[in-house]
Amino acid sequence: MSHNIKPSTKIHTINDAIKLSKKRLPKLVFDFIDGASGDDKLAEINSFALDQIRLEPKVFRNVEKRILSKKFFDFDFDYPFGFAPMGMTNLSWPEADKMIAIESSYNNIPTCVSMASSTTLEDMFNFSDGHSWMQIYIFQSEEFIMELLNRAKNIGYKVLILTVDVPILSRRARDDRNGFGYPFKIGPKQFLDFALHPQWSLTTLLKGSPRPMNYVTSKTGDQIFRRKESRGATDWDTLKRIRDAWKDKLIIKGVMNFEDAKKIKESGADAIQVSNHGGRQLDSATAAINALPVIRKTVGKDFPLIFDSGIRSGSDILRALAFGADFVMLGRPLMYAVGADGAKGLRRIINLIKEELSTNLGLVGLNNINEVDEKIIAEKYLKDIKY
Ligand SMILES: Cc1cc2nc3c(=O)[nH]c(=O)nc-3n(C[C@H](O)[C@H](O)[C@H](O)COP(=O)(O)O)c2cc1C
Questions:
Q1: pLDDT-derived band at 387, boundaries 50, 70, 90
Q2: CB 153 within 8 A of CB 172
Q3: pLDDT higher than threshold 80 for residue 230
Q4: Is 10 inside a domain boundary?
Q5: 72 - beta bridge partners?
Q6: Backbone φ, ψ for residue 144 (5° rounding)
Q7: For residue 73, what is the DSSP state?
Q8: Which of 116, 124, 191, 372 has its CA 20 to 30 A from that of 184?
Q9: Overall number of domains in the chain
Q10: CATH code at position 142
Q11: Ligand 1: residues whose CB is within 6 Å?
């Protein structure tokens, strides 16, 4: 797969990608991607809360040339955003992982590889030309985790993300209703769903149904991905062990509470990712963006903060940066884009987000993304910034 990809002509907004992917994907797959936990509302609330933050146009600022490049840790990225870790991405279309990795290399931005990814850590590092960061959960055997850390280090991974907001996997009603689980069970209901979406089903049949490849290729006994297994035994000692075992950059993902943030910073982590897992864990949590200013205030202005959950546009990226993030991650938009039109869909969505980011940066009167702060937010909405 080369970098030379023609952007989809079928997609003009993120909603186009959502609609198209809903049509092309089996219901069971679309609902796995789109779904949230419990009452299924928080994913929408995340985006709605971002949307409520209105920006202020400014004039006479000479914004003809605009810089979008952003330094994060020691990396010089071309844009202030990257791709969030997502397990079993190839469900959205065969080779989705590869498309996402290639897109990250093409744009010189990072892509986070889930330990439950459907492509090995090794292949993702190659496809992304080294733009991969690795994400782990702590569950099942810690021996396996240590094997993954060693593997990642030997490949050349420089950044590890420890996701901590899934001590217990939340229930997602849509998955239960559709009989979605791993390993996949194919009964009459699922068979009908697949038959009604022949393009996805035939391509998946041809390429093989996605498997958690980091488990399949493990050398530490028989590693089987058990999605619903408890991760509840994780505690502050776990963080200490991971910090001791991983000497390069360590990001703690899934933090919403300022006291947690303070303790994580004191424990020697290099960055925090403020996130409510895209609304897929505590359904009654606040919109992730509301936690960001409080956490920024707690950790101080220089501690690296990443934000995800609900980002759907270039304006949303500006909003998150204005609320205190240094860097932003995209989740579902990648899956919708690939589900809608494969690599072309992904290229198109990323182009749209970049274009909007650049245009709107100029419209709020700035020509450098590194100058974004709360002054781009309309006065009326500033009361939400609690620092
Ligand atoms: C289908 C899917 C799978 C995910 N898998 C993981 C995962 O394996 N590890 C992880 O840390 N987060 C995972 N997440 C959460 C994302 O990394 C991210 O926090 C979330 O999608 C951001 O919200 P957004 O989708 O509204 O952009 C997953 C999210 C989705 C939608």
A1: very low
A2: no
A3: no
A4: no
A5: 75
A6: -65, -40
A7: T
A8: 124
A9: 1
A10: 3.20.20.70
A11: 33, 43, 46, 84-87, 114, 116, 135, 163, 253, 275, 277-278, 308-311, 330-332, 335
